[in-house]
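Hi again,

Forgot to attach this to my earlier email, sorry! This is the prediction with adenosine-5'-diphosphate bound. I've pasted everything inline since the attachment limit keeps bouncing my files.
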Amino acid sequence: MKHSEEQSAASIDDTPLARELADLSARRRALADVSVVLPTSPRVMTVSNQKGGVGKTTTTVNLAAALASVGARVLVIDLDPQGNASTALGVPHTADVPSVYDVLIDEVPLADVVQTSPESALLTCAPSTIHLAGAEIELVSQVAREHRLARALEEYLRTASEPPHVVLVDCPPSLGLLTINAFTAAAEVLIPIQCEYYALEGLSQLLGSVQMIQKHLNPPLRVSTILLTMYDGRTRLAQQVADEVRNHFRDEVLSTVIPRSVRVSEAPSFGQTVIAYDGNSAGAIAYREAAVELLARDAAGEGEES
Ligand code: ADP
Ligand code: MG
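Structure tokens for the complex follow:
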């Protein structure tokens, strides 16, 4: 017993865990020194994938917080009636709170519903409430039903004294009118892809929808960014999926990969992003790297190809 303890103590620097920790602190130091260039005009990105549970909301809120942590002003628009993004950002969204519903249905200015997250003065959120569940149907009979969010956002960006550098729209897991509103309001689509077996299933449907929106409603829209999430480096499958996605979407996939991490999944139950909850965890560091990469790609004009 004693003997084996000594043995493991002697070899502790050489364990995968030790290597991972050393790697993590090197990455943390690199992030501390990084400098970013903020976009000169707002980048509006919709985080979309019609599959549920692939990490859309997790990516939206953690990327938003990570962007804020490097000095970007960020607005999150929560378009999912479940309101998970609002929860994770610590923003009240009970039924009586003015929300994106009022913006879409009653033409309330976006500025009237935007709240600041307790996490950072740079981080704001237009919350979703339960009323949004009915909006999908109510929108059908509205004038300019596909463009309501786009109009509200344009007005907001035009009139805000300090407009956000980045707007992230968290979409529900469907391709209904709420998601269409997100697609017409944005110039960029960010697709989170879970590194699992069925990850690519349904992707062609999503790309088809983006093409249709481009053609009929919003020509500038493009899939600018793909982020691999819930990556488990111990499985061959995760690596295979990642390789396959990289082969298909060479220019769009960020080199940063978000690992599967308990800290990431715990954070929302504390009304926090992982950046605030455990900013030095592997998940937080990965999201901060993704944020830096996202800003660098814009500055370099990468992913421009259509
Ligand atoms: P979506 O918005 O696409 O439905 P979510 O962001 O809500 O997906 O994520 C689905 C579930 O997976 C949630 O329980 C979330 O906490 C968990 N999850 C997301 N990303 C990670 C990760 N990197 N590590 C561990 N769990 C994750
Ligand atoms: Mg979600």
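The longest strand covers residues 222-231. The chain is about 45% helix and 15% strand.

That should be everything now.

G.
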